């Protein structure tokens, strides 16, 4: 092995990461600051830079470094970077260039067709695009290869190591427990009253409270910032520039407050990756599921926890409108934890959320597996919603058309959300063994929690695969018992059944 | 000529422009929004993308297109783009790669050494770096070539067509007229009282007034935005995304108000370039001097004009602190036009500004010509300041070290500022022949003025060279009579001599 080749390889990865940071900044800017007339031009610029990243990823130069260095590298960062680069190279190399190009064109067209179809509640106009997207994804899965189920090849892109076999073992257990729990909740006499949360809550005050909570969580404002947007997200441009965005609804503070904490959880992950991974493909969260476990952990396990409000309710009231002044904390706490089956995933509560995911998982698995076709989707969607959640969409806009994912060809992504819940519950259980987490939450000492997450999860970036982290932290694999136990205990107390 | 080659050439320019837009956005972000800890990483990313632009500019691919297309192109946009690309290629190709690399390293080092030297008022610590920068620039000028004066080769980078011969014809006339005028102003009995402009002026109110004026100037907020920064600038990312920045001084509204109008003038230029020049090297202002003529036109000819305040003074007072309530407009107008020789260029008034530039021009011309050396600079600077402006710096921090330009190797840049004043006066004179400009200003109908500028100047971008625009608009070349006449009339009225 030539030392020079290793340096050249890492320099090429740095070049790639640099384009990635520029692309990330452009994306952030488009969604927060950019004037609307500049968007067309900017989209073309994004196209040029994305193409460049793709070219590097699939270049002969990259291939030659991979071939030359493979099996001859001792530095673990270089070794893991090599694995990532090889996987990215192979993934693209296996798809004929012509098909890849057609697919990229289809993706961008399909996304705008989806937006229109949703707007007009017109599934049929979107159907031909979705059919093609499914067709490409079936083919890509075959190119990439799999052992048992074709859908595994797609799952691998989002949650490497997790397969249909794993999911089909755990999802039904969770579903059964959740539907039972939901039945008990719905028939409990002691229902929370969410109307107590209403009240005109000025944006500026929501922002001040959100900023304060982010700070207490350990979010570093010298390495990040909070801005307003339409569809909130967090983005790591580099580990010292990780930005959070949020959306303010003056008639419902929950959107901004829990949304900011959720994105803040993502941001803490990206801010606390080991600096030695900078400018490598390892300098980001290891998977969609582990990332989601971090946002959900902060949003639900921390900020929808009773102990959290024991400490923060007075602070909250200092920013909140008058109407909260005499609202007892218990009423507030129970209201923010109301469980109510609904049609829209992104508005779902902590309990029913996973059921929304299961509907999507089962449909996309069957689609990719060839057991159902796109034309069957609307009806199957509605039937499953009724079966799992007891609600039935009145139209496709609030049914099968609600999410953007499939229109971008993102099949295999949805399970990450539910996996994130399960990981979060497993991490939370382990954290409680290590620290008196309730005491820290009650004391407002959230940084102790952040430090635990950094030590056990964040610092590694992509140095560990998702199930490797899970095993290292909890000593076991994916185990649905923890989420079931957590939700059961939580809602038993709130709904008193 | 192969059609395909032309398309490939334009695609390569588009790629280059795309990196340019990404670099521009990163620069804007670093100066307005980016968290401080992310700056180091971002600087590296900027380095990677800048290197990429340089590589494209000097690539064999670019060279082959230039050679193949030269003399065979009919489309004028392609033709002008080809000329720009060839000039950029030749300019870089003439410098040995090794020297270029050393120079880039020197530049970034010198800039931080200058900042430190200025901070510590220590010219000697900066001297060796400045000596090397001068040495490189002398050599580069020799590589690039010139007819009469070595300094012409550097001037060409900022103001193509303008030479030492041209400047040495006009600057002395202007200087003589300005110093005579300055004498009359200083001995006039009727001095304005700038203390009437004092008063705590909340930032938010300054911002509201600035936004309103920008809007009235015809600045399109759907293709731009206004943000806060430390050293204000305007930047065109693309012609539909041209951003203005400003700085608020709550004890002196002039910084933000006139600064915003100044940068707004630059921004209007970039917003109104013909869309067909998008993604070519022509989609920007044609030179530093013409650009400055636009900002100075709006800042001085419009917003320091009496008619402007006849219309806008009530609006201003609606945002201004109480202390302005009873201030007569005439006192206000005279105060914002106070002339007072000072040491710092960027704080200079409309009249003495050009004298600051002449000090710099004469010194850098002599430096590059080899008639003086860096060690002579501090004393010569102070002597010239005393001779031209009647003030002498007490130290080098407020003397020769005040400006950043030389530390970045920008020799030949300074004259653009004074040329901008002269161009602006020539344009203003012509505009008055075409429209009743005072009436439009008085009526607050500033868009008519903007439209004239777009029609005569903005739309062309780099399709015309600076002196070509000047000739097309005014029917003559650089003529200092106009600036002299304008300033004489203006100050005669204000100072009543």
From TrEMBL, chains A, B:
Binds 1 zinc ion per subunit. SUPFAM superfamilies: Metalloproteases ('zincins'), catalytic domain. Zn(2+) binds at residues 262, 266, 292. Its cofactor is Zn(2+). It catalyses: Release of a C-terminal amino acid with broad specificity, except for -Pro. Keywords: Carboxypeptidase, Hydrolase, Metal-binding, Metalloprotease, Protease, Zinc. GO terms for molecular function: metallocarboxypeptidase activity; zinc ion binding. It comes from the Bacteria. Its EC number is 3.4.17.19. The active site is at 263 (proton donor/acceptor). GO terms for biological process: proteolysis. Belongs to the peptidase M32 family. Broad specificity carboxypetidase that releases amino acids sequentially from the C-terminus, including neutral, aromatic, polar and basic residues. This is Metal-dependent carboxypeptidase. It comes from Halobacillus mangrovi.
């Amino acid at each position: 092995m030539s030392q020079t080749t290793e340096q050249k390889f890492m320099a090429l990865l740095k070049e790639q990461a640099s384009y990635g940071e520029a692309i990330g900044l452009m994306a952030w800017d488009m969604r927060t600051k950019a004037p609307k007339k500049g968007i067309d031009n900017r989209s073309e610029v994004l196209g040029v830079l994305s193409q460049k990243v793709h070219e590097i990823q699939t270049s002969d130069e990259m291939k030659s470094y991979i071939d030359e260095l493979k099996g001859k590298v001792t530095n673990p960062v270089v070794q893991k970077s090599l694995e990532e680069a090889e996987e990215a190279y192979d993934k693209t190399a296996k798809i004929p260039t012509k098909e890849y190009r057609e697919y990229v064109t289809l993706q961008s067209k399909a996304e705008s067709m989806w937006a229109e179809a949703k707007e007009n509640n017109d599934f049929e106009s979107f159907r031909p695009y979705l059919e093609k997207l499914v067709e490409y994804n079936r083919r890509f899965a075959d190119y990439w290869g799999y052992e048992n189920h074709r859908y595994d090849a797609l799952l691998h892109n989002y949650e490497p190591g997790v397969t249909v076999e794993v999911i089909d073992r755990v999802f039904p257990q969770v579903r059964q427990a959740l539907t039972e729990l939901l039945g008990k909740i719905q028939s409990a006499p002691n229902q929370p009253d969410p109307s107590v949360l209403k009240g005109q809550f000025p944006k500026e005050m929501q922002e001040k409270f959100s900023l304060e909570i982010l700070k207490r969580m350990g979010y570093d404002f010298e390495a990040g910032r909070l801005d307003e947007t339409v569809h909130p997200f967090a983005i790591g441009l580099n580990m010292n520039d990780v930005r959070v965005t949020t959306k303010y609804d003056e008639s419902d503070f929950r959107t901004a407050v829990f949304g900011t904490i959720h994105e803040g959880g993502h941001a803490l992950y990206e801010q606390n990756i080991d600096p030695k991974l900078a400018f490598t493909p390892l300098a980001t969260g290891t998977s969609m599921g582990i990332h989601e476990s971090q946002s959900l952990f902060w949003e639900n396990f921390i900020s929808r926890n009773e102990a959290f409000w024991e400490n923060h309710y007075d602070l909250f009231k200092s920013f909140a409108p008058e109407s909260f002044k005499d609202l007892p904390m218990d009423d507030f706490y129970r209201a923010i934890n109301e469980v109510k089956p609904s049609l829209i995933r992104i508005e779902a509560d902590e309990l029913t959320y996973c059921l929304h995911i299961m509907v999507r998982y089962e449909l996309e698995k069957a689609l990719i597996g060839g057991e159902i076709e796109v034309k069957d989707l609307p009806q199957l969607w509605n039937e499953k919603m009724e079966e799992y959640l007891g609600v039935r969409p009145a139209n496709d806009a609030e049914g099968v058309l609600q999410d953007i994912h499939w229109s971008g060809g993102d099949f295999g992504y949805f399970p990450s959300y539910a996996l994130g819940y399960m990981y979060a519950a497993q991490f939370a259980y382990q954290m409680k063994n290590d620290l008196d987490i309730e005491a820290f939450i009650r004391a407002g000492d959230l940084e102790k929690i952040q430090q635990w997450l950094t030590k056990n999860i964040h610092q590694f970036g992509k140095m560990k695969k998702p199930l490797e982290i899970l095993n290292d932290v909890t000593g076991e694999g994916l185990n649905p018992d923890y989420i079931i136990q957590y939700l059961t205990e939580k809602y038993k107390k709130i709904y008193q059944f």
